[in-house]
Design goal:
Helix content is about 75%, strand content about 5%. The longest helix has 30 residues. By secondary structure, the protein is mostly helical. The protein has one domain. The radius of gyration is 21 Å and the shape is globular. The protein is built from seven helices and two strands. The two termini are about 40 Å apart.
C-alpha cells in the first residue's frame, strides 16, 4: 500500500519541470556564489593580514614568486587581488556578455589550478598522521579549490553554450 501511495505521488510530479527549475537555481547559485567568493577573496588581498598569509605560498610558487621581486608582498597581493576582482566581474556578466564571462571562467580555472599547485610547491603542505598522508597547515583550506575548479569549469561550459545562442533565448544562469 505504501509503495502504491509513493508511486501515485511520484507520477503526479512533473519531473522535467522540477529538473529545469532546479538546474536554473543551481546555476545561479553556483555562478554567483563563485562570483561572491572570488570577489570577497580578491578584496581581502588588499589587507595586510592576507598579504602576509599568502606570502609563503607565493614565495614557493614557480609561477608567482617573481611577483614578490617585482612588487613586494603587499604589491603582489594587490596584483593577485585585482586579477581576482576582474575574474569575478567577468563571471558575473554572463547574461549580457557570455564571451567575456567565458574569459572570466578560463581565468578562474587558471586561478584555481595555480592555487592547487601550492599543495605541491609549499613546504609543509602535507604530513603523515596515523599512517595516512593528509594536507597540513593551510592544505585543507587549499583543497576546497578542487570544488571551486569544478564550478569554474561549469561556468565555462555554460558560457560556451550561450556564445552560440541568440541573446533572446539565453537562460539567466
Amino acid at each position: 500500500m505504501n509503495s502504491d501511495l509513493a508511486s501515485s505521488a511520484a507520477s503526479r510530479v512533473d519531473a522535467p519541470m522540477y529538473s529545469r527549475a532546479l538546474d536554473t537555481v543551481a546555476g545561479v547559485l553556483l555562478r554567483y556564489g563563485l562570483v561572491l567568493l572570488i570577489l570577497w577573496i580578491g578584496i581581502f588581498k588588499y589587507t595586510p593580514t592576507e598579504s602576509k598569509a599568502i606570502e609563503p605560498l607565493v614565495a614557493n610558487s614557480p609561477l608567482l614568486a617573481w611577483l614578490l621581486a617585482v612588487a613586494g608582498v603587499d604589491g603582489a597581493s594587490a596584483i593577485i587581488g585585482t586579477a581576482e576582482i576582474l575574474i569575478a566581474a567577468l563571471l558575473a556578466v554572463r547574461p549580457l556578455w557570455p564571451r567575456l564571462s567565458l574569459a572570466g571562467s578560463i581565468g578562474a580555472i587558471g586561478m584555481f589550478l595555480t592555487t592547487l599547485s601550492f599543495l605541491v610547491t609549499t613546504p609543509g603542505s602535507w604530513r603523515v598522521v596515523d599512517g595516512l598522508l593528509v594536507p597540513a597547515g593551510g592544505g585543507f583550506f587549499i583543497l576546497k579549490d578542487v570544488v571551486l575548479l569544478g564550478a569554474a569549469c561549469w561556468t565555462a561550459a555554460d558560457a560556451l553554450k550561450a556564445v552560440g545562442r541568440p541573446a533572446s533565448v539565453e537562460p539567466v544562469a
